Amino acid sequence: MADRRSIEGMWLRQTFFRWLIPAAFALPLWLFVGWIVFGASPWALLWVLLSAPIVFVWQLIVSLLVRARGTVRAERAVSWLDIGVIGAWHVLVIALGAFDGRWWWPLFTLTVVVGVAAMWVSLSQLGREAGSRVSLLRTSSGIGYVPVPRAEAPRAATEEDIIVIHEKTPPPAS
Which of 27, 65, 78, 158 could bond to 122 as cystine, CB 3.0-4.6 Å? Predict the structure, then answer.
């Protein structure tokens, strides 16, 4: 049962990994489509024109930070924390595209806060992986680790460390 859940979880995490880059294009496009479909005011178009490029760039940065992690590259899957925070941000951006004036401003504020949290979570996970003494590579076939090579200070040679080999040469032929 646990194996089946981990396989299903891996499928979801890999699918979200593949969604990150297309999301940078789909989410800003949805803001334009939502403005048209829901018949928002011309003032809302001003917010779309301001926020769509920000969503595009922010999503690209978050995607690149996530993809920069060694574990994400090895598994081609994001973490559950990524799915939770970045996924919540995507849902909020999609909800913004509905342009309902009664709750648009609080939703906009919440979207900005969760977007900043997504960036923070991505940076902290990248920093945690990059700063570790041992780089962990998790693959679908198991877990392997490769220790980071340590720089050792050169030590002075002692009498015990020096080995001298005397070669016996045959006498020259006359």
Answer: 65
What is d(CA 149, CA 104) in angstroms, rounded to the nearest whole number? 52
Nearest CA to 75 out of 122, 18, 148, 21 is that of 18
Concatenated DSSP letters for 100-138?
A: -TTTHHHHHHHHHHHHHHHHHHHHHHHHHHHT-SEEEEE
Q: What is the pLDDT of residues 70-115, one digit of tens each?
A: 889 888 999 999 999 999 999 999 999 888 888 888 999 999 999 9
Q: How far is CA 63 from CA 50, 56, 129, in A?
A: 21, 11, 16
Compute the half-sphere exposure of residue 59: CA atoms within 13 Å on the CB side of its CA.
25
Look at residue 19 and tell me if it is in a domain: yes
Domain assignment of residue 37, given as a range = 2-147
Query: Whole-prediction pTM value?
Result: 0.70
